[in-house]
Amino acid sequence: MSEIKWCKVLYKHQPFEDNYTSKTFLDEMEKNVNTKIYDLPRIIFESGVVSQQLSSICLFVSVFWYLEVKILSPINLLFALLLCFCIGVSFRKVIGKKGIGVSSCFIVSSFVFAISPILKTLTKSISTDTIYAMTTCMLLANMLFQDYGAGAAIVSKVISLNTSIFAAVCLGSRLSSSLQVYAFVMLAVEVFALFPELRKDIKCWCRGADIFLTEIMAIFTTLLLAPVSRIAACGLVLAHFMITFFFPIWMYRLQRYKNNIHGPWDEARISNG
């Protein structure tokens, strides 16, 4: 009498238990079929965008301190912003990218200049400690919602930009003149609205240039932050080291624990319908 073989069908009556599986059932099992494994240099390179954003935030806070203690004049800051803007526009044209709308930037600049006296007194009734706490929360939200190119669900360019502008308005109310407020808000627009797009262009244009930009920003921001607080400058160096090396190496080593299995069984799939 021939041996009855088990078949993976529901319509056929078979003399086996409901939970029976053949000896060859797991032969078709595969592990990590669609799992993407990243190499360490790639992870370190991709971490540069986070380091750049952190440097931008520290630059923003440092410039506020320089304005507040009157080491940096708003005229010089505006001149530096205009120079950086022209360099950015010229660079985008050289690499063949669509130029930034100069007319739109002029309209935004004029609008900010017109409302600067209002922004200066907008949060005067709020205590300085509360302003600093609110600013800290807004800048943390800016980092959290920033688009780092990973396509995560939490990414929101609108929230990221709005939180940075709100932080600029909060800190601007602690400056002594409307011209300082205007220059500081324009700094926020250039650093958090325009500069991220330029960084993406540099990253797509040349990998080496993006690495160079990351290192230059880290060094420049650390030197800029050192007179404000040596502890903060040391913390920034440590943060850059953690972001650039420690966390990428950690992530790289954790990849060995990925264990997604696929086999001949019917996998449950959730349908929105």
Automatic annotation (TrEMBL):
This is Phosphatidylinositol N-acetylglucosaminyltransferase subunit C isoform X1. It comes from the Eukaryota. It is a multi-pass membrane protein. Its main location: membrane. One of its GO terms (molecular function) is glycosyltransferase activity. Belongs to the PIGC family. It is found in: Membrane. The chain crosses the membrane at residues 43-65, 71-91, 100-119, 152-175, 181-198, 230-252. InterPro entries: Plno_GlcNAc_GPI2. Pathway: Glycolipid biosynthesis; glycosylphosphatidylinositol-anchor biosynthesis. The gene is LOC101240049. The keyword Disulfide bond does not apply. Keywords: Glycosyltransferase, GPI-anchor biosynthesis, Membrane, Transferase, Transmembrane, Transmembrane helix. Pfam families: GPI2.
